[in-house]
Amino acid sequence: MPAPVKIAIACPMELIRAGIREMVANTGIQVIAEAGNAAQLRSLVKQKKPQVLLVDGSLPGCVRQDSFELVAELKDRLVGISLVFLTTVDNPTYTARARAVGASNCLSMSVGREELVAAIRNAAQKKPATGAGAFVAISGALSTRAAATSTKNLTPREQQVLSHLAYGLSNDEIASSLEIRDRKSTRLNSSHLVISYAVFCLKKK
């Protein structure tokens, strides 16, 4: 019998956490820890090592940051742990930000049992998200291979950055998504300026 997939849940709503526990019961998935706020999540990742961490996109207690920035802060402690974000907001920017910080998927709180279990299993096995959901579509749009050719005004790299800017990602999130190690890279900053200027010129026409 295969070992169960160990998961942790970071969500402020006990009802949601209880619902997830019920949905994954008898599926070979084991909930080993839970957190209701940012402080509890920080403690959780110090003490536990789940294979998959489900994180509410609006986790309370994130001082001067949100769940996405908190996850980025905890990146070193999350090595080897796959992330799946849960959100009540149908917002492409949330989905893009989840992808930028390395999430395996971003699901609606109203997700069904079959889709949730499949997403957890894919994440545990380090497989890409599948299906026709927003995360798959946005991941494709933000792929480093999506912009393969240059145009008259933009290079492929600038097109990649532009696609990220269109979803409202910050410079740090763009750097993470495009795997730019130096977050203060002048290349990234100059791309940002070039694209901003190009958009400004287009609006003036």
Coarse shape: globular
Helical residue percent band: 40-55%
Succession of helices and strands = EHEHEHEHEHHHHH
- The class by helix and strand makeup works out as alpha/beta
Strand numbers in spatial order across the main sheet: 2-1-3-4-5
**How far from one another are the termini?**
65 Å
* Poorly predicted parts: none
Largest sheet properties: 5 strands, parallel
Radius of gyration: 18 Å
Quaternary:
single chain
Could you give the topology of this structure?
Layout: E1 5-10, H1 14-24, E2 29-35, H2 38-47, E3 52-56, H3 67-73, E4 82-87, H4 92-100, E5 105-108, H5 113-124, H6 134-142, H7 156-166, H8 171-177, H9 186-204
Parallel strand pairs: 1-2, 1-3, 3-4, 4-5
Helix pairs in contact: 4-6, 7-9
Task: Tell me what you see in this structure.
The chain has a 5-stranded parallel sheet with strand order 2-1-3-4-5, sandwiched between helices. Helix content is 46%, strand content 14%. It is an alpha/beta fold and 205 residues long. The termini are far apart. α1 links the parallel β1 and β2. It is globular and about 55 Å long.
